[in-house]
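Give me the fold.
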Amino acid sequence: MERGKRIQAINGEIPLPEAIIQHIQSFLDGKQAAQTSVLSKSWYNAWLTRPNVDLDERNFPTIDAKSLIPDEFLIFAKKTMERYRNFNLKIESFRLWMRSTRPGSIALANELILGALKMDVNGIDLELDPPNMSFVLPDQVLEFQSLIRLSVSGCKIDPPVGGKVNCLGLKSLTLSTVRIGDDLVWDIISSCPLIENLVLSICEGMIEVRKLNFVRKVTKMLTLRSPSIEFDKRNAGSVIAAPIKVSEFIN
């Protein structure tokens, strides 16, 4: 901008670049970001195409936790993903919160997650409430090379059918109240050399944490919280928030 040049208001509004509006919206949750769309047409358009998608079923009216998926949420979620697909928009961050007890919830969660992957998502936050171990995280998530951040809560995580974890760009992994085995945890860590932050909280199926010195080499922060895991503090070199048993090391 030229020095001394004034910014003129248009229809009483001082225009902001769409990127700045979307940056502001990125600090808000889905409901708050949606509320900014009434400020002006530019804020509405920015909200429609923002790179941070937040689908939270709690923002929609419901009768009870076991009834059908609320029509408002179902329509909103499907139309949102359809809009991004039709306009070839990129999703940087995808957050999904759903009740797992409703008929059709597992199928819808799968559809939405796979849709986000097709739009080159960088970060996924998935939370199912209550935890439902009959829902298995889609294989494609652990095979997605562009994924940088993954946070999963309330489901089961199995090894990919092809047997290969391929999240080469993954830097942050948070697993909370999930069912996952030791071997898959270490397969993820060894296959994702860029991991900096690792949080394991109440991971059912993990018996012991092995090869901790290898983890320490590739992570800047390691937080482990699981009441079922014992821990020998003498072998800890990172931030540890609970007991872990270390039975094997790699030199």
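The longest strand covers residues 172-179.
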